[in-house]
Amino acid sequence: MRCFLPLDKLSQEPYSTIIGYPKATKKQIKTRIIELKKLGIRDVSFQGQTKIGSLNILGKGYVGVVVLSRIKNKLVAVKIRRTDASRINMVKEAKFLKIANKAGVGPLLLAMSKNFIIMEYLDGKKISEWVNELKSKQDIKLLKSIMQKILEDCYSLDVIGLDHGELSTISKHVVIGKSKTTIIDYESASTQRRVSNVTSATQAICIGSGISKIVRKIYRMPSKNKIIKILRSYKQEQNRQNFEKILEILKL
Hints:
The chain is α+β, with helices and mostly antiparallel strands. The chain folds into 2 domains: about 120 residues, Phosphorylase Kinase, domain 1, CATH 3.30.200; about 120 residues. Strands 1, 2, 5, 6, 7, 8 and 9 form a 7-stranded antiparallel β-sheet that branches. A 3-stranded antiparallel β-sheet has the order 10-11-12. A hairpin with a 2-residue loop joins β6 and β7. The protein is elongated. The two termini are about 40 Å apart.
């Protein structure tokens, strides 16, 4: 059962450490609580796989920490800008998430402000955790469907010119949810550089990561050289035809 803490309690330790992570003044904490109230947030639940001090949260990155919350009775994920973040607000990240949403990718953006992004809550597991729970050949069909979904999402991002920026380390950036599997965390995204979502994700899943080692134990794939060759063709000309060749060689 989830336990939710009213926002006014967040001014107290140890909860204030999260809303003003890693360090904030009392004035900053107070301002942030008011900001959350304006966004419709009334309470927060400290749970998840990531731990800060004695509290559990959904996630932590270079820009923010993510907690579970509610707007009315709807569960949402709240990304809180770190006080030591290299950016002064969450506007750019929210903009990139909105672009991804237009392509049918990412958790839905619900609201945003200077210090917060309110998103659809995805009840699921990070891909690194999910892959570790696969049970040999009986899970091949499920694995293939998830791989195809991820690569299709990557292709959608490539088409609209949004580069995620961190899919070469895919372990933390894909959630396999009960109702939705998608790419999360757009804090390093850009529309100004050449997109490499499909190539980065394919390499991470099939060639060079801890995930790829597990995947290859379960699912027999072509040699790394064959995959690299087809990825080079796609990189030179990022069209649907070359993308289909990637799916074909991976038997997806």
